[in-house]
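sry for the spam today, last one i promise. struct tokens for design, 98 residues
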């Protein structure tokens, strides 16, 4: 519950000062390649992740790079739910479908 309270406070502060939050969170750094969120059903794991992802644009369309035309589309994030059957095949199909 303490973490939830802190997250709510940070969200409220974000509306008033992005710089202040950046300074407070500056010490949080990780070299991890992955993340796991584990918890009982209904506590808001999916909602929290979706709200976090929505803080970033999902797609960036690039038109220029170093003064030269550069027509590329960058996918910043892609949310894929765990496959219902736990198989790698279903995960890959979900990835390409998304």
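last one done:
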């Amino acid at each position: 519950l303490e973490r939830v309270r802190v997250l709510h406070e940070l969200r409220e502060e974000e509306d008033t000062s992005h710089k202040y939050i950046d300074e407070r969170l500056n010490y949080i750094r990780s070299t991890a390649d992955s993340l796991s969120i584990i918890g009982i059903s209904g506590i808001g794991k999916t909602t929290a992740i979706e709200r976090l992802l929505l803080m970033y644009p999902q797609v960036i369309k690039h038109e220029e790079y170093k003064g030269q035309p550069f027509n590329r589309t960058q996918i910043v994030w892609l949310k894929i739910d765990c496959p219902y059957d736990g198989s790698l095949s279903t995960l890959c199909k979900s990835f390409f479908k998304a």
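Residues 56-98 form one domain. ok im logging off now
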